[in-house]
Amino acid sequence: MAVQALKDYKFSPADAQEKFHGAQLLYVGWDEHLMFCAPFAYCLPPNTLFSDLCQKFMAHSFGYHPDWKSVDFSKVTWLKSGQPWQPDMSKTLAELGLKHKDVLRFQTPGLKGINGTCS
Amino acid sequence: MDMNVKKKKLGLKEKYAHMTRGLDWQTSYQPMEKVFPQATFEGIKIHDWDKWEDPFRLTMDAYWKYQAEKERKLYAVLDAFAQNNGHLGITDARYLNAVKLFLTGISPLEYVAHRGFAAAGRNFPGVGPRVACLMQSVDEIRHSQTQIHAISNYNKHYDGFHDFKHMLERVWYLSVPKSFFDDAFSAGPFEWMIAIGFSFEYVLTNLLFVPFMSGAAYNGDMATVTFGFSAQSDEARHMTLGLECIKFMLEQDPDNLPIVQKWIDKWAWRGIRVLSLVGMMMDYMLPKRVMSWKEAWEIYFEQNGGALFADLARYGIKVPECLTQCTEDKEHISHQAWATFYQYGGAAAFHTWMPNDEEMDWLSAKYPNTFDKYYRARFTYWRDEAEKGNRFYSNTLPMLCQVCQIPMLFTEPGDPTKICYRESEYEGEKYHTCSDGCKHIFDDEPEKYVQSWLPVHQIYQGNCFPDGTDPTAEGFDPLAAVLDWYHFNNGHDNLDFEGSRDQANFAAWRGMATKNT
């Protein structure tokens, strides 16, 4: 349903990709690790290597958690928009087909957060 | 000879008729629909504005008298509070953070409500609601002023009170209440009345004001209690206006029902999301607790709100569907919200902390189904780490909901171990929401929410640094630049309560008032 308005109601989106100076938004959440209250938002160039995302950016954000050092990326399962997804660590975000404002979740079987409470 | 003496005074009923309904006129130079262009575009059909009933029958002259009396009493108490160092009478300096949240998050909204009701009063063709909206508009600016005056006493002594107006338009968590009112104000006058007059002032107001005012009373904050009392009698009038407005719309035309129902569904959900902030205030920020958020929700929403919806059922109004979710959420949202502020406490204009053992036991007792199972281990871990000098501050910006603008912290219905993700696509662009309720609102009016000013995205676009900042300069610290742009005193307004200037000053001043050393 359209907005009821007195005049033509048309505005460009506030977060179109061209407003991010060549970068794109990517959201990443760690399932069953609610110590991080929400998924993180990253603003990264499309030529960022997926391995850099994991080893640099995510390590910086998630590294406080005692489970982080046990994360084995060869066993991690990924979801993109809630659907199973398989990245290639050696490829870039663009090569993997990740678009502006895509959302990824990663699952680390066997790791259940602080005292197994998914924290 | 007997003279027929004219009565000098009008009766109340006559006075009301002359001083409200009698003020109306039909335009002659311009057609009425051009003078009141906003009266029809929302699709609400009104056939007879004279059917509007004003239960208070208040006229402007009486209004000024009542309000002046309230002001005199209020300012006498505030003067006494200031002269007697009333700020030292509060239970604990942690309490001040609840007042900071109120001043920055609520008081500026009173001002927006003032503007919104002034606009609604201008835009309704019926004189009854016009006068009622005018009075509410004046009430709202009075509330805003009295709150600012009452709280200004704290600004002399403590951090974080200094620039609420500037902060409202910039700070990430204040975008939550701000966007709520912006959404309402940018709708038509009828939707405004449902959003603010009905959902906010009627359905949810007790969950906002009672916790803050009782919290103030329990914690020795006489300044806040006093403005609360002063506003209370106005609130009764506001609730009546909201209820009268919804009944009037429903009685005027059966076609209005689906539109009104849609607005109730939307605004109940939006209001409940904003109230997450109140939930965490009640359960975590009050040193002396009044009741738990869950108990407040059960009394003020489930019982009182239930009775209201039972009353509206005769018009065909149904309880909003999204509210079934709230029965589950009441056990979680206060803990989830506090966990969020704790980890982003570096970027908040108030202090955060972890509850002590006694407080955790209180939370366990109040939330037997959830606190120990999902939250206690997390909070204990954080507290232990803080004691080791490793206090947790999240170093990356969170993903936000496109509609409520709260970080995506809410969990999946039926599974409190997983974040709830919802996604929509509009004109080739992706949009993310935190819940079915927010997704539904987005999908209904995507053109509106694509414009959302989401603080996280704005920071990444480079729009949240002081003028002249060069983000490419070596050693550029984006967080410090953003806090500077927020007008935060980094290191004083933010971070943990433990070790804060507020904590030290309150202890020193109270010591001077109670000891001889």
Write the layout of secondary structure elements.
The complex is a heterodimer of chains A (119) and B (517).
Chain A: E1 24-30, E2 40-44, H1 50-62, E3 77-80, E4 83-85, E5 102-107
Parallel strand pairs in A: 1-5
Antiparallel strand pairs in A: 1-2, 3-4, 3-5
Chain B: H1 12-19, H2 32-35, H3 60-83, H4 96-105, H5 107-123, H6 127-155, H7 164-168, H8 175-185, H9 189-218, H10 222-252, H11 256-274, H12 276-285, H13 293-312, H14 324-329, H15 333-343, H16 357-366, H17 371-387, E1 411-412, E2 415-419, E3 422-426, E4 429-433, H18 436-444, H19 446-449, H20 455-461, H21 478-486, H22 501-514
Antiparallel strand pairs in B: 1-2, 3-4
Helix pairs in contact in B: 3-6, 3-10, 5-6, 5-8, 5-9, 6-10, 9-10, 9-11, 9-13, 12-15
What does this structure look like?
- The complex is a heterodimer of chains A (119) and B (517).
- Chain A has 119 residues and is an alpha+beta fold.
- Chain A has one helix at residues 50-62, and strands spanning 24-30, 40-44, 77-80, 83-85, 102-107.
- Chain A has a five-stranded mixed beta sheet, with helices on one face.
- The longest helix of chain A is centred in the middle third of the chain and has 13 residues, at 50-62.
- The model of chain A has no long low-confidence stretch (mean pLDDT 97).
- With 517 residues, chain B is mainly α.
- Chain B has a two-stranded antiparallel sheet with strand order 1-2. In chain B, strands 3-4 form a two-stranded antiparallel ribbon.
- In chain B, a hairpin with a 2-residue loop joins strand 3 and strand 4.
- The N and C termini of chain B lie far apart (86 Å).
- The mean pLDDT of chain B is 94.
- Chains A and B meet through strand 1, strand 2, helix 1 and strand 5 of A and helix 15, helix 17, strand 2, strand 4 and helix 20 of B.
Write a brief structural summary:
The complex is a heterodimer of chains A (119) and B (517). With 119 residues, chain A is α+β, with helices and mostly antiparallel strands.
